[in-house]
Amino acid sequence: MVERYQSKVAVFLVLTREVNGNTQILLQERCNTGYMDGKYDTACSGHLEKNESLAMALCREAKEEIGLNIDEHDLKLVALIHEYQDEYINVFFTADKYEGTPKIMEPDKCDNLQWFNIDELPENTIMRVRNVLTNMQKGIIYDDGNFSHQKAKS
């Protein structure tokens, strides 16, 4: 019998708001995680747990990491990245409706939480996040995670 391929699944929140006609995105600066520490990532993210839908996972992560209540129906799928070399499926949702004020709930994993204009991201933003935002503006949902081919074009 052939063993079936399995991937890890992670969900990411692209939290947006409009300010003076500009779209802003909430980013967190990672710390003490062992992965991309010192770089800006989406507002929150996490792994899918057993018996949990993608939307359920992201709503849980939003509450745990930034103290927001988000209704699953207010999430909109904006990107699916299949990083097959790393055996990961990364699923990005956006939301602009939520209850609460974003705040750092896990100070041991997050140094900073800040709104940035979508076209004025800090230099130390994770490349995957930059690609998702660029693709989101172009209406591109799927990406194979091979960012090297996209870097060469930009």
Task: Describe the model.
- This protein is an alpha+beta fold and 154 residues long.
- It has a single domain (8-148), classed as Alpha-Beta Complex (Nucleoside Triphosphate Pyrophosphohydrolase).
- It is built from three helices and eight strands, in the order ββββαβββαβα.
- The chain has helices at residues 54-66, 127-138, 147-153, and strands spanning 8-19, 22-30, 40-42, 44-47, 76-83, 88-95, 110-117, 142-143.
- Strands 1, 2, 3, 4, 5, 6, 7 and 8 form an eight-stranded mixed beta sheet that branches.
- Strand 1 (8-19) and strand 2 (22-30) form a beta hairpin.
- The longest helix is centred in the middle third of the chain and has 13 residues, at 54-66.
- The chain is globular and about 60 Å long.
- The relative contact order is 0.24.
